[in-house]
Specification:
The protein has 317 residues and is of the alpha/beta class. It has twelve helices and eleven strands.
Length: 317
């Protein structure tokens, strides 16, 4: 038996038919006639020396040989398609697809994108706001902005663009009602799950521990998304332990204030990540340079704060 592969067209016809378990639907996908598809599969079977499908009255099913071939054929075409997309992107100097978390996109990135578009009208920018850790090849993504604990990522270019810190945030009216940190023991508290999942955990327990205060019972209203917690605080619903990056627009425009000097730092940071080599493309270089110029403005919020690494909450707190 020869190890020589059958024609690619025959393998492609088999892959489509195996996925659909229908010659008619496979032919429609490949934009060929059912007769032409059937001919290609017959050619593959002649090459293999055994049938790969059992032809039934109104359906087909894989033989043992077909079942052995189908997973590899599917993986092979998926790999080929991914490589083809990568080759196309490598020659593209104008398109840029970026993914970032929904809260970062809504609160910090989206309000600034008009400026980037004005400065770089030649770049076609596409965004995917998602918490899912996207695959650069499978999802056709060029750049990811990720928040979390830095880690070794082989095959990727990764640059930290900004660290994060948190402090209580509230409306100016609420700050007048709770002028001292100890006053928060009776304040309505808001929290979001995004920072609670970091290690060490950053939440109200950690902040009260750093302030030398007991923890009130419960942590008030919890939100799954950080931007929702910030919106609730800006509406006067309570005090949120806010991330300064996400709250920047609300702080700048006066919807939120930071009345206390105590802030917690974390090793979690925002990183600019892309496959190694992609960072040299002109549109990626332009986007990274723009991001870093925008991030530089955040230094103004550090003045007057006393930064403390997030401590472990006291046992039983």
């Amino acid at each position: 038996m020869s190890d020589r592969l059958p024609p690619l067209t025959a393998l492609r016809a088999f892959d489509a038919a195996a996925r659909h378990m229908s010659f008619a639907r496979a032919a429609e996908e490949l934009n060929v006639t059912p007769a032409a598809l059937s001919f290609q599969i017959k050619s593959l079977e002649d090459h293999l020396g055994t049938p790969v499908f059992r032809r039934l009255n109104r359906a087909v099913e894989l033989t043992a040989a077909g079942q052995a071939l189908a997973p590899g054929a599917a993986d092979g075409f998926a790999t080929l398609q991914s490589a083809w997309r990568a080759a196309q992107r490598s020659t593209d100097t104008t398109g840029l697809t970026v993914t970032a978390g929904p809260a970062f996109t809504a609160k910090w990135l989206a309000p600034r994108l008009f400026g980037f578009a004005q400065d770089h009208p030649e770049i076609e920018l596409r965004f995917a706001a998602s918490l899912r850790l996207m695959d650069f090849d499978r999802d056709n993504v060029d750049v990811a902005i990720r928040f979390g604990i830095p880690r070794d990522e082989q095959g990727l270019f990764s640059r930290q663009i900004v660290s994060e810190w948190v402090t209580p945030m509230m409306t100016a009216e609420m700050a007048a009602r709770y002028p001292e940190p100890a006053d928060l023991l009776t304040a309505p508290l808001l929290s979001s799950d995004d920072i609670r999942l970091l290690f060490p955990e950053i939440g109200w327990k950690s902040w009260f521990a750093a302030a030398g205060l007991p923890m009130p019972k419960g942590e008030g209203t919890r939100f799954s998304q950080a931007d929702h917690a910030l919106d609730a605080a800006a509406a006067g619903a309570g005090v949120v332990l806010g991330r300064v990056i996400l709250a920047e627009k609300d702080l700048r425009e006066g919807r939120l204030v930071m009345p206390y000097d105590l802030a917690l730092t974390t090793s979690a940071a925002y990183r600019f990540v892309c496959p190694e080599g992609v960072q040299t493309r002109p549109q990626v270089q332009a986007f990274l340079a723009w991001l870093e110029s925008q991030i530089a403005d955040l230094d103004t919020y550090e003045a007057g704060h006393r930064f403390v690494p997030a401590p472990a909450a006291r046992p039983g707190a």
